[in-house]
Amino acid sequence: MVKAKTTKKVTKKKEVEKKTKKVKPSAVLVKTPKEKEIKKVKKVKKVEKEVKKETKKETKKETKKETKKETKKETKKELIGGEEKLLEKKELKSDKEDLEEKSSKYYEAQGKRKTSSARVRLWTKGKKEFIINQKTLVEYFPTIELQKTALASLDVMKCLEKFRISVIVKGGGISGQAEAVRHGITRALVLFNPDFRKRLKKAGFLRRDDRRRERKKFGLKRARRAPQWSKR
Length: 232
Description:
Blueprint: H1 2-22, H2 33-103, E1 106-113, E2 116-123, E3 130-132, E4 135-136, H3 137-140, H4 144-150, H5 152-157, E5 164-170, H6 174-192, H7 197-203
Parallel strand pairs: 3-5
Antiparallel strand pairs: 1-2, 2-5, 3-4
Helix pairs in contact: 4-6
């Protein structure tokens, strides 16, 4: 019986100890007013940080939009400025060309021979040159005979060094082109001075020469040449 009482006392002591352990003042967390204030401050700081982040994002977006708008405006201005400059340049060029045309009047005519045609322009002012298809006379017509035929009408009127001449020739061979240039120059000289007509007509340079190579006929070797006849 004594043993049973001692065991009961021990168990009671243990239970009391457990209860006391649970209800120890050190184990229980009690919030002081300072800690509460610190927590509030932390929350406020967190909220401020979030607000700052949002404001930064918004400001970045706004700045990006503004920069894009500014760049677009600048590009538009540059394009408009470039177009205006181009228009101004074109206008200036057109004005210059008009002034040049008015100041330096030229006489234009077209000459033909066989299948070649030549557009001739005569200027009274400027450097006295003879240019054919952006080449000099000697470069384009290498032989002296062709040079003489091209300059024949000027030689007759004694105006070799009075004009600046530019010619564009197309089609045919070299001899046909030389005669087409001569025909064009004679027509331009008549436009320059109608008194030249009689002398140029007498020389035979004013009329267009219609002679052409006759076409080949079937059964013949050329236009008229027949194959050689053999008796046997």
